[in-house]
Amino acid sequence: MTTAPDALGTPIDEESCHRLLRAIDIIGVRWTGPILLAAARGARRFKEYRAMVPGISDPQLTVRLKQLQSRGLIERTVIPSTPVQITYALTPGAKELIAALDPLAHWSERHLPHNDA
């Protein structure tokens, strides 16, 4: 397998390209970023996510939370109480992902117009 260094001198091979594409597939899905940013502020209940992510519908939020949970980025906790409470929080891997995305967020603030949709 051949590798070529990237601009930072890190070797790039086919497997690392595939891993990067899978990561982009995860973060590139609509609503993932806002949901993860909301979760970064602490464990939340469903209605809190809905309030923190403008424009998301209940079905969209339900699907995204389940997808993020299946990807190991969100963990769902059932709190036995009356009524039962369910919270969603970041996993350690998701916290690493947010830290990795922070430079991208700063880049977008400097280089992308604020009215860009």
How would you explain this protein's 3D organization?
By secondary structure, the protein is an alpha+beta fold. It has a domain at 31-103: Arc Repressor Mutant, subunit A (Orthogonal Bundle), CATH 1.10.10. Helices cover 53% and strands 14% of the residues. It has helices at 14-27, 32-39, 46-52, 58-70, 92-111; strands spanning 4-5, 11-12, 74-79, 85-90. The strands form two sheets. It has a two-stranded antiparallel sheet with strand order 1-2. The longest helix has 20 residues, at 92-111. The chain is globular and about 55 Å long.
Blueprint of the fold:
Blueprint: E1 4-5, E2 11-12, H1 14-27, H2 32-39, H3 46-52, H4 58-70, E3 74-79, E4 85-90, H5 92-111
Antiparallel strand pairs: 1-2, 3-4
A few lines on this structure:
The protein is of the alpha+beta class and 117 residues long.
Oligomer: single chain
**How many beta-strand elements?**
4
Mean pLDDT: 88
CATH architecture of the domain at 31-103: Orthogonal Bundle
Spatially, the strands of the biggest sheet line up as 1-2
Radius of gyration, CA atoms, in whole angstroms: 17 Å
Helices, by number, come to 5
Tell me the fraction of residues in β-strands, as a range: 5-15%
Shape: globular
Largest sheet: 2 strands, antiparallel
> In the CATH scheme, what's the topology name of the domain at 31-103?
Arc Repressor Mutant, subunit A
